[in-house]
Amino acid sequence: SLALFFQARRRQRLAAKDQFEPRPIELRSDEVLKGVTGLIGNTPLIRINSLSNALGVEILGKAEFLNPGGSVKDRVALRMIDDAETVGLLHPYTGSRIFEGTVGSTGISIATIARARGYDVTIIMPDDVADEKEKALHALGADIERVRPASINHAGRNFDSKPYQNVARQRALEFGRDFSSDRLHLVQAPSSMVVSTSGDEENSDDLMNKPRGFFADQFENRSNHDAHYDGTGPEIWRQTNGSVNAFVSGAGTGGTVAGVGRFLKSMNEQIIVAISDPEGSGLYNKIKYGVMFDSKESEGTKRRHQVDTVVEGIGINRLTDNISLALPIVDDAFRITDVEAVAMSRYLVQHDGLFLGSSSACNLLACIKLARKMEWKEGQTIVTILCDSGNRHYSKFWNDEYLEKAGIPIDPELVTQLLSSS
Ligand code: PMP
């Protein structure tokens, strides 16, 4: 048996030696990405197998949760900072500070990139925002200022975000003032970026090196749209060989739907652009009836003031510049209830192993509704955005206890019914 043992070991060694035979590998010099920003964008497009198989329509999701900051907002944050640097509103390593008012992922994306570029960051947020977002911001070294809770307005969504947007704008101005001798020099950039600095001559070296306060202003900043018009949109076109029939997206600032939608329409006017709108958002009504009003308004004030919604990041009740860019090219809208969004998120884990956030769930629900409405057959393709992962949503959307208290049932069968109903 000892002989057998040595024989086996000899065979093992020979097999191991085989593995050292050099194999031909194509050499690439462009595969090393330059720092964390190199990881942003160029996300894969994945087929949602369960939905595509059931519908006979290709449902494809852009895996934006794979961005280093964990969401589609990395693209926007990078573009806003790049553009501000290009037009000379921000200069790395001068002690400048970026300000933004956000409940969402944009703060995390800005903080991520800011660290890599030598900027400080202040995020203004309502004090009822999900805990995990504040923890991430804290870890990234951002300063956080809490303002009055959004629940006074609209249940912790991005709705009525003006109050903390305005605080962020104010803080950016004050920051510049601190470095000014007696005058505040206000630079109004294209795309409505607000920047504060000090001095007399804009181009003097002295001014270049002064710390600046920069209000990123994702709602009104055109760079938001541009990130998607130049990035996300062309990627989708390339990845589908130009054979995309529809694009579905929620809208928080409107940047994604405006940028991707306008790009795709420019390539092929026939492509349908549809919005997935959560309960309580006014966009659905704006698109269907031309008037923007909260879907819960008619139900009286009691419901409206309650923190009763679980979808974060999409839905809006005012016309931002980015939404306004999108409106002329939006063909359709679908209202998605909280119950449907929750059902979809659980269904996707069960059937596809995909653990996604609330806006991704809304988007995929809207894909089903669009596919059914169009009575599309084999070969048609709908593309949507998988904005972030479920791990950003443990305290609300992925918290069963929270949902129970909010009276939202967890019923993935609802999706099965939607898929099979005719
Ligand atoms: N999903 C999530 C998770 C978000 O944070 C956002 C941004 N608020 C969106 C979707 C919507 O994207 P946009 O701002 O481009 O409309």
Oligomer: single chain
Compute the average pLDDT.
85
Question: Order of strands across the biggest sheet?
Answer: 1-2-12-9-10-11
Determine the fraction of residues in helical runs and give it as a percent range: 40-55%
Q: List the ions, cofactors and other small molecules found in this model.
A: 4'-deoxy-4'-aminopyridoxal-5'-phosphate
The radius of gyration computed from the alpha-carbon positions, rounded to a whole number of angstroms, is 24 Å
Walkthrough of the structure:
The protein has 17 helices and 12 strands. The strands form 2 sheets. The chain has a 6-stranded mixed beta sheet with strand order 1-2-12-9-10-11, sandwiched between helices. A 6-stranded mixed beta sheet has the order 5-4-3-8-7-6, with helices on both faces. Residues 151-161, 180-192 and 298-308 have low confidence and may be disordered. It starts with a helix and ends with a helix. With 422 residues, it is of the alpha/beta class. Helix 10 links the parallel strand 9 (246-249) and strand 10. The protein has helices at 2-18, 49-55, 73-86, 106-117, 131-139, 151-154, 162-178, 205-208, 222-239, 255-267, 283-289, 301-305, 321-326, 338-352, 358-374, 400-405, 413-420, and strands at residues 45-47, 58-63, 97-101, 120-126, 143-147, 185-188, 194-197, 213-215, 246-249, 272-278, 332-336, 381-386. The radius of gyration is 24 Å and the shape is globular. 4'-deoxy-4'-aminopyridoxal-5'-phosphate binds next to helix 10. It catalyses: O-acetyl-L-serine + hydrogen sulfide = L-cysteine + acetate. Its cofactor is pyridoxal 5'-phosphate. One of its GO terms (molecular function) is cysteine synthase activity. Residues 36-388 form the Tryptophan synthase beta chain-like PALP domain. It is an enzyme of class 2 (transferase).
